[in-house]
Amino acid sequence: MRAAALLNRIIRFYRKTKYTQRLFITARTLRMAGSDRVIEYGWVLSNLGDAQRVLDIGSTGSLLPIQLAGLGYDVYSIDLRNYKQYHGLIHPNMKFIQGDIRCTAFPDEFFDIVIAVSTIEHIGTRDYDNVIIEEDGDVKAVREVARILKTDGRFIFTVPYKCEMAGLIRQEAIETMKRQKLAKTVVQRPPPLRIYNEYTIRERLLKGCFKVEKEKYFYKRKGFWYPAPKDKIGRLKGERLACIVSRKI
Questions:
Q1: Which alpha helices (H) appear in 34-156, and where do they start and end?
Q2: 40 or 4: which carries more pLDDT confidence?
Q3: What's this model's pTM, rounded to 2 decimal places?
Q4: Which terminus of the chain is more solvent-facing, meaning fewer CB atoms within 10 Å of its CB: N or C?
């Protein structure tokens, strides 16, 4: 209620002027340009090739399935959350399944391509209405992807690169809350993001199911994303992103 009242007060005093409009547009552009989706969606679209039937994992909250359906792909999407309830609409050529990618009813070798944009790292954690919490939820998800992909099919995914700072950041936030007496007791949960790098991607996620066919790394600097050489990405600070195309073996 307090937040709503504050928002109404701000709107009441807002006046559309040349300055405020420019400020609004700049803020919106910075927010969009700084999103990792700018890189991830481009990566997916540039690597679809001649695929026909595509599955997007963890798609609720994303407009990528609608974009793919509009481009003519036979699009399926799966998420624990209801896509239509979240967005208020769904593309007529898009098939949504509310469920868990770790255990699906799709037939064997059903899809040409499976996509996971910043999703794998959350599977099995407490994020996004997960009911089954398990440490190797991401690995189980990849095994199911291998089952439903056609022979020689591609698994295109993105994950944060080396998220070892997530725990420290969360701990700092907890200490701040305690100092400000915003909470008497805070129950600390494990960091929601797992650590992914060249080794864990190949040896933990993909081993025995997929081989890396194409990879590219990016880092964020002063609000914008830039490509980074593979041999330097590990030494860069701040947000980093791994974009992978793997092929079923």
A1: 37-46, 64-70, 83-87, 137-148
A2: 40
A3: 0.78
A4: N
